[in-house]
Amino acid sequence: MISFWVAIAWLVAITARSCIHLLAPDGGAQSIATIDVTAVAGGSNIVAIFGQWGAIQLLLALLLWVLLLRWRGTVPLVLLVFTLEPVLRGLAGHLKPVTTMGTAPGAEINWLVLPVMAFFFYLSLCPKRR
Description:
The chain is mainly α. Helix content is about 70%, strand content about 0%.
């Protein structure tokens, strides 16, 4: 049961992040991720990609909301997605590094989220004790 509530809490954060990327004037690229979009060529393209990224994130978040709220048995699947996301984002960042003026919040918490989500994913697979 606690895994369900952890998944809900993290999904609230993911939904908010998605909306910021979609709706913020700079997509959060400079204001949050500290990517210089004003002094570089193609800065508007970076902002556009962040906005599109937010749209895709929002679609994924909505799908995960449906899974969690409609089918409680999908909690392990949702937590598996939450566990794999930081791994894949870390891999993408390693293969295609981004130059920033500071450390983006996503980069700071990426490796903290992984063990937490892995733990709750494991916990969601454990049989309930009565």
